[in-house]
Amino acid sequence: MLALTTAILWGLLPIALKGVMQTLDPITTTFFRFFLAAVLLTPYILLKHKNSQMPEKGSRFRSPKLLMQLLAAGLLLAGNYALYILGLEKTTAEAAQVMIQVAPMLLLLSGLWVFGEHFSRTQWLGFLSFALGLVLFFYHRLHDLFFAFSDYGVGMLLVFVAALLWTGYGILQKFLLKAFSSQETMVIFYWIGAVSFLPFSDFSKMAELSQWQWGLLIFCGLNTLIAYGSFAEALAHIEASKVSAVIALPPVFTVAAVHIIPIEGIVVEALGVLSVIGAVMVVGGSMVTALYKQQPQPDPKKRP
Fold first, then answer.
1. DSSP letters spanning 267-284
2. Which of 6, 208, 240, 294 maximizes the CB count within 10 A of its CB?
3. Residue 281, domain member (yes or no)
């Protein structure tokens, strides 16, 4: 249920962001997401550390290596948020959500080189399904993506680069979790993001937001906090592969919400049969690649 909560929130997020950006610019919207999450999570972290009886915890913040990793991961996550929302501004919610699924797939692939992991034959088939699904989903937009320098093509490129940045963040986060809890790292990342976007934010349009848009903006901020919190808590209850499989579902919720519920001002992606099949293959390929890990081979020198 925790992983499903994350999937639903991430699925609805691009739709809410689209609604807010009818008035507010992408950078100010992103600042608010980071700032609200940071303000809400900070008191909890401070209280948790105040009640902690482990004095050695503070020594982690005196390590230059860990501090540099925290800063780099925070900036990569901030860059991911910025490029994603800038790309979303130029495209549709469904397209951005399908393209950003490249991020967890790249993180899985990075394990082959960074962490010495191995893919099973089934996982490679899942990856092939994922790649072919992307081609089918964007088949009707191939000219915009590769030949015409259109807003749609530029937007998809920005979302793809955002996925690359998220992969770098995910790799660093795996190393940081050996020294910090996920909540400790996230509150630092939220403040890094808020401080980074503050100088570029324009608050003059805040007064023009409707009550509906204020609700969407608050939802975006809470979404950042609750979705990542649910994701981290889910990892504490079930295997990471199962969590990864469930959070491959956001494109399903995005496509369903946009096409079933009419939302004023939201442009709907024109989906044909090939695009629908492609979306299913992207989600299915992601789930298969996450779930069907290669089992370690028994050591013949060891007795059972």
1. PPP---HHHHHHHHHHHH
2. 6
3. no
Q: Are 129 and 285 in contact (CB under 8 A)?
A: yes
Give the integer Cα–Cα distance in Å for 159 and 100: 6
Nearest to 284, CA basis, from 105, 118, 92, 88: 105
Q: Which amino acid is at 195?
A: V
Q: Distance between CA 287 and CA 254 in Å, rounded?
A: 17
- Reported as a single tens digit per residue, the pLDDT across 189-239 is 999 999 999 999 999 999 899 998 999 999 999 998 898 778 777 766 776
Query: In this structure, is residue 190 part of a structural domain?
Result: yes
Does residue 133 fall inside a structural domain? no
Give the mean model confidence (pLDDT) for residues 58-62. Answer: 66
Could you tell me the two tokens for 107? 């993180």
Which token pair is 231?
């994701």
Length of the chain: 304
| 257-273 pLDDT, tens digit each | 887 776 666 777 777 88
In sequence order, what are the residues at sequence separation of 6 or more whose Cβ sits closer than 8 angstroms to the Cβ of residue 102?
Answer: 134, 160, 163
pLDDT one-digit tens code per residue, 135-180? 888 887 877 777 767 888 899 999 999 999 988 888 888 888 888 8
The answer to whether position 264 is within a domain reads no
**22 neighbors 239 (Cβ within 8 angstroms):** no
**Number of domains the chain contains:** 1
Q: Which of 93, 248, 84 is nearest to 162 (CA)?
A: 84
**Is the CB of residue 189 less than 8 Å from the CB of residue 73?**
yes
Query: How far is 7 from 249, CA to CA, in rounded Å?
Result: 6
Tokens of 229: 């919190």
This prediction has a pTM of 0.84
Residue 233 and residue 144: Cα distance in Å, rounded?
40
β-strand partners of 135: none
- Half-sphere exposure at residue 55, Cβ-oriented, CA atoms within 13 angstroms: 0
